[in-house]
Amino acid sequence: MIKTVRGKLDKLNVSETLRYLGYGKTVIPEEGVQGLLRECESEVLAAQDLRACYSVFDISVQGENIDLGFAKVNSHSLALNLAGCVKCVLFACTAGAGIDRLIAKYSRISPAKAAVMQAAGAALVEDWCEELCALFKREYGDTRPRFSCGYGDLPLTLQRDIFAALLVTKHIGITLSDDCFMTPTKSVTAIVGIR
Amino acid sequence: MTILEKLQSGRVILDGGMGTQLQERGLPLGVLPEEWNISNPDEVTAVHRAYFCAGSDIVCANTFGANSLKFDDRLEEIIRAGISCADRARAGLKDKFIALDIGSLGKLLKPLGGLDFEDALTIFKRTVKAGAEAGADVIFIETMNDIYELKAAVIAAKEVCSLPVFVSAVFGSDCKTMTGTSPEAFVALAEGLGVDALGINCSLAPAEMAATVERILKVSSTPVIVKPNAGLPQEKGGKTVYSLGADDFAKQMVPLVEAGARLIGGCCGTTPEYIEKLVKAIEHIAVKPIENKGLTVVSSYTQARYFGDIPVLIGERINPTGKKRLKQALKENDIAYVLNEAVSQAEKGAHVLDVNVGLPEIDEPSMLEKCVCEIQAVTDLPLQIDTSDPAAMGRAMRVYNGVPLVNSVNGKRESMDAVFPLVKKYGGVVICLTLDENGIPSTAEGRVKIAEKIIEYANSYGILRGQLIFDTLAMAVSADNTAANAALVALDYIRHKLGCNTSLGVSNISFGLPQRDFINSTFFAMALARGLSAAIYNPNSQEMLKTYNSFLALSGLDKNCADYIEYASSVSAGEITVTAAQKGGTQVTGDLKYFILKGLKAEAAASAKMLLENSEPLDVINGFIIPALDEAGKGFENKTVFLPQLLMCAEAASAAFAVIKTKLNPAENAKKLKAVLATVKGDIHDIGKNIVVTLLQNYGFTVYDLGRDVPPETVLKEARDRGVQLVGLSALMTTTVVSMKETIELLKRELPSVKICVGGAVLNEEYAKEIGADRYCKDAMATVRYAEELEKNI
Description:
The complex is a heterodimer. By secondary structure, chain A is an alpha+beta fold. Chain A has helices at 14-20, 31-47, 76-81, 97-109, 111-140, 158-166, 168-172, and strands spanning 3-7, 50-58, 60-62, 65-67, 72-74, 87-94, 175-176, 182-183, 187-194. In chain A, the strands form three sheets. Chain A has a four-stranded antiparallel beta sheet, sandwiched between helices. In chain A, a hairpin with a 2-residue loop joins strand 3 and strand 4. In chain A, helix 1 crosses helix 5 (111-140), helix 2 packs across helix 5 and helix 4 runs antiparallel to helix 5. The mean pLDDT of chain A is 94. Chain B folds into four domains: 3-282, Homocysteine-binding-like domain (TIM Barrel, Alpha-Beta Barrel), CATH 3.20.20; 306-540, Alpha-Beta Barrel (TIM Barrel), CATH 3.20.20.20; 582-661, Methionine synthase domain (Methyltransferase, Methionine Synthase (B12-binding Domains), Chain A, domain 1); 671-792, Rossmann fold (3-Layer(aba) Sandwich). Chain B is 49% helix and 14% strand. In chain B, strand 8 (233-236) and strand 9 (239-242) form a beta hairpin. In chain B, helix 6 crosses helix 7 (117-134), helix 21 packs antiparallel against helix 22 (562-576) and helix 29 packs across helix 30. Chain B is globular, with a radius of gyration of 30 Å.
């Protein structure tokens, strides 16, 4: 069974946004950049449309051969992550098309703001993932850190199976390109092992 | 009885969920439901049969995902089999119909996604053709999240067959689609395209749809579809069940049907039992007649704008007539300038933006199409497509995401025969100029006569009165002092006696007079008082805004004068907060470098302007702009300045450069190097490439930005035609490095003297060498350094 949830964040993770922009932990951004950050925060929060869908699958891990319940995959790194798990939550989530529109808008008229918006959108969807993972922990107990396609040796092409298994496009509107890239771009899919 | 006759005569019962029904019957996870049309036709037929017997008048064939992206060469076979299952299910039953069911392609269209509008249209056409040939009675385009894709599907349906078309979109509990469309904008688009029924399906239970359904019914003159889910899926004993049972579903549907929903059924989780109970629950409800709302509406992908109550302001800044800087921008293909004009007008409160790019030396159809798409990427205001070239008009209307305002048609037969078919096909509202083969009548009566003629002729094309807005032509009062009166009397008559909306290009009235704003704003007030529904205006004109805001307050259109008060206080605040730079004076002299380093755009521009009074343009560039950029660039290389700050410096430098450019003789441009930049074919990631473009331009290099997803042949052609010395290619994905390699090979073969630099997430020094690039540039500054290196050898 596939469940859908929606969410709303009331602030932006500014330190994470700065990290994406290349700032070290101890660096204080210039005044002008701080202004940009404030603008981007309010625009990103207004444009957010957080959606997610997820489902639980029985899994089995035999060495590097993993049966995820919705697909079989061979992956050393995922096998390590899922060691000792018999189930997993598979989820897809997005920060919404509005964020992409903002990035598209500013990439045409202000490269600086586009860069900050890009980072702010990424920070937003990461926080949304964290919120979802906290929810899974509450619902399913002992969960592992989330693991996405492209981490380690887990192939990007697994996205196709994930999209089919969760009917992602139908449920929350993320679309997948032939190259397995998602639109809206501020979207994440991941596997969360349950022990 | 035909399906449309049935729809005319009363309510139409649709079917319920298909996918969930097939899963019940054993469709395994991972198997496409449409496969069963061939491998398990009896089960598919049985589901249809059960719906027909439960009371459905129409069933959707099992073709929701049947498109060439999924089925390729088996598509026609799958669709034929799907229609045939539904056909067998109606054996022995009367007045039962089959819909060719069409869902989303699962790929987002440009500019958000990568799918081209015309490519989407081609894919839909093939599905429609197969369905129509297989014997479908109606095309049902449903579960659409994106109205742009919906537009492609409807146009495809209409271009391929003459079957009725129904459309249905998915709205959330916030009354918006996933891509942000309001119910009103959806209705405007669907009706503009001439669909036979429109509505909402999936995602929500009936009660949760009520707000959206109410808003749709309020503005729709077309029969309305409501097809909700059986609530939310829940897990019970290892099985998926939906939260809303058949009885509750039927109960929740009653108020929606009472409100006027005419085509009703269910979506995910609903079964024949739901349809049966629904039919019983609504039997006693009288069928509401469908009213023609007679609305005049234009829309964008998010919002609709109605004409008639609050006068609509149409921003005129994107029209090259009399605007030197815009002319230059259009000639140089400087879209960024156009986009900034769009954003700035939106911020100043324009409701609709005029887009006119007519210049003798440019290819207007392709420029207008491009500008319309690009402007829609930076603002969600509806646009006015303004051109005298029907080819340009048609192309822009086709790709426009929404229904546009069209400017213009006039009483000449030739004009009407060119424009009305476009309005009929793509929808929208057209500005009608009250002139014809005999010119502009000097009297109001003459103009009214032309208006009447236009209304009648439009009607013969099936265009409603509500789709026409009349411009009674403000002519120079300095040349004819009855000019204002003629326009106003005609306007009054057309608005109040003919019941049509009106518009004026207000500023023509003051042509040839000093202090034109005085005359314009007074004439504007007079016209508003006589019933003006829309005006083309300059959003920078305070006089016009004063008149407009005062008029709204005085005519009772501004509750508690709240908007007026807000406007009035913004004006006085605006007068106080003039920036230091605008004040001029000593504090900015010579601080250009500082302003650039701080990323202060307005100040940098003002400072450049002042420096130019006593310095040569080249001295300003070499003495201030380049040193500032170098300092920022070095900081970036040493990791003391970070990307956003570097880009802010670049933007401030651009602002200064734009000022200097007006004084600069192109021949003495500091840099000789010209470059073509592109993100390679198959790749739609252009953030990095855009940053490189910005910085190169800042350093005074001439850059031709070809955008993203650019085929090798295009790169070659542009590089050759423009005579560039450098080509910069960008790729983010491993899969597209292949096209980068192809592009390099082609360039090396055809233009061996041109240098090629590459960049992007997947590349490194070695990889770049391997695919034949001359240089790997790890970031934008590295590209600038490489360009400087090449510049020395030119």
